Amino acid sequence: MLTNNARIPGACTLPLPCGTTLWLLPGRAVWWPDAACLLVADVHFGKAASFRHAGLPVPSGTTADNIARLDALLADTAARRLVFLGDFLHARSGAQPALWQQLRAWRARHVQVAMDLVLGNHDRHAGTPPHRSGHCAA
Fold first, then answer.
1. Tens digits of per-residue pLDDT, 74-88?
2. Beta strands 37-40 and 29-32: pairing type?
3. Contact at 8 Å (CB) between 23 and 33?
4. What is d(CA 80, CA 61) in angstroms, rounded to the nearest whole number?
5. Are 30 and 24 in contact (CB under 8 A)?
6. How much is the pTM?
7. In this predicted structure, what is the pLDDT of residue 87?
8. pLDDT digits (tens, 9 = 90+) for 61-72
9. Which residues pair with residue 25 across a beta bridge?
10. Distance between CA atoms of 25 and 45, rounded to whole angstroms?
């Protein structure tokens, strides 16, 4: 678990003038230990699927990769809150049933973690995650 005194390869601290220290993590996240809060931005779930929907040949597996990264971040930090800072979804065309199935299973593994979504520009076009999927509260 990442604590105020922990050192993990590639992580660095960002002391703020108010006395709070944030950790910039190599998993493309910010850890706020005093609040037990993990912050991530621009996850863009469904991006590859939306590209394939448009006829672009891109590899599959990006959702699984993102989920694995989030799993590792949650395990490393023991976060009690996860905040998605915009662009949870990439596009409406990528928000397919298979994506929701993967995200529901992931969310069920982390039911103890409160999750919030700050809507970003892509979310406004793609739509917010359906409440019944249990991803996060918008």
1. 999 999 999 998 777
2. antiparallel
3. yes
4. 27
5. yes
6. 0.76
7. 75
8. 678 889 999 999
9. 29
10. 20
